[in-house]
């Protein structure tokens, strides 16, 4: 019985020369045999290295990459833990402050009730035991006592009794949260424009995703209760009332646009602020006019300092947290966040007064 060799299995051979691929051609980025590097070989004159040297170099590069990943994730983990500790301490501090305010107010109202009881007893005593003439003489005292009682009932720093949710605001947490959300979502919402709402100054594409501004008012648009008749606005066909939603808009061709959300009861008619996006209580929008960017709601405008004009604009709506967020999809950079108690279903809303904007799918 012959003994079988226990040596290593032979490696792949050069298809052209049938020799072991013991060299690596740096020019062609592939393993080659000795004959390929010699006289008449296809890699003669190229820079070549021994295959084992190239393999060791790759192992070293992979090890360095692995260490870099571990180092960076460790830094992120450490930063997240520090931020978690900082925010939890702020929450605890705010909880303690609110609790102490409640205790202080409880003492105040206990004393106030005692004062009211004293005043009540005094007034009842006057009304019971004084004759008409004495009562008239006591009119000023009765008036002063009544005025004192009314003052006791005035609110005393009632705003301090509320938990201030701003204590959990963190730009770092928001940026990490957005990155995690965008990485975990399976895709953006299939948002399309409701053609019944499109302003006569806008043209809607066949796929109902692109709005193009036209300075001349279209006469072919049939007017209806849903249509904006003055401002160049349009609402999406779908509304959101729960959950987490995101959609993106291509805005690179326009220097005048608005993108955001609106309540369904947003007025549609007239040139007043009632139907102008960002100028009423029904709409929340990110806007651009030339090189000026801002967030607008209820006539309040907040200027935004952007380093560059975004080619795309992302909208992230978290209805559980009552948060509206605008971001740049290419970098994941958060451009603005807004917290508000939204009172009903929200529709994506758009306006354009220059060129074209398109919903990206």
From TrEMBL:
Keywords: Metal-binding, Zinc, Zinc-finger. Residues 170-361 form the B30.2/SPRY domain. CDD domains: Bbox2_BSPRY, SPRY_BSPRY. It holds the Pfam family SPRY. The keyword Metal-binding applies. One of its GO terms (molecular function) is zinc ion binding. This is B box and SPRY domain-containing protein isoform X3. InterPro entries: B30.2/SPRY, B30.2/SPRY_sf, Butyrophylin_SPRY, ConA-like_dom_sf, PRY, SPRY_dom, TRIM/RBCC, Znf_B-box. It comes from the Eukaryota.
């Amino acid at each position: 019985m012959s003994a079988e060799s226990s040596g290593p299995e032979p490696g792949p051979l050069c298809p052209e020369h049938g020799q072991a691929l013991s060299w690596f051609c740096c020019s062609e980025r592939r393993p080659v045999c000795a004959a390929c590097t010699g006289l008449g070989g296809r890699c003669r004159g190229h820079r070549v290295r021994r295959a084992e040297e190239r393999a060791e170099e790759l192992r070293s590069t992979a090890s360095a990459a692995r260490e870099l990943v571990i180092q960076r994730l460790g830094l992120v983990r450490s930063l997240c833990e520090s931020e978690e500790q900082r925010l939890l301490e702020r929450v605890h501090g705010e909880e303690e402050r609110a609790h102490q305010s409640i205790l202080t107010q409880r003492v105040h109202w206990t004393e106030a009730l005692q004062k009211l009881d004293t005043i009540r007893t005094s007034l009842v005593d006057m009304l019971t035991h004084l004759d008409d003439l004495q009562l008239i003489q006591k009119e000023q005292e009765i008036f002063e006592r009544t005025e004192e009682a009314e003052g006791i009932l005035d609110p005393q720093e009632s705003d301090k009794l509320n938990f201030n949710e701003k204590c959990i605001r963190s730009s770092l947490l928001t940026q990490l949260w957005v990155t995690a959300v965008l990485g975990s979502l399976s895709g953006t919402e299939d948002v399309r424009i409701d053609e019944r709402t499109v302003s006569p100054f806008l043209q809607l594409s066949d796929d109902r995703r692109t709005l193009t501004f036209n300075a001349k008012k279209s006469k072919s648009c049939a007017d209806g209760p849903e249509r904006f008749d003055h401002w160049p606005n349009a609402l999406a066909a779908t509304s959101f009332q729960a959950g987490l939603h995101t959609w993106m808009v291509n805005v690179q061709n326009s220097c005048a646009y608005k993108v955001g959300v609106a309540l369904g009861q947003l007025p549609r008619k007239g040139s007043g602020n009632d139907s102008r996006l960002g100028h009423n209580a029904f709409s929340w929008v990110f806007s651009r006019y030339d090189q000026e960017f801002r967030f607008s709601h209820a006539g309040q405008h907040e200027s935004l300092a952007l380093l560059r004009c975004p080619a795309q604009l992302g909208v992230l709506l978290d209805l559980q947290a009552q948060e509206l967020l605008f971001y740049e999809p290419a970098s994941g950079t958060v451009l603005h966040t807004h917290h508000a108690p939204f009172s009903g279903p929200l529709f994506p809303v758009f306006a354009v007064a220059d060129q074209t904007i398109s919903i990206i799918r």
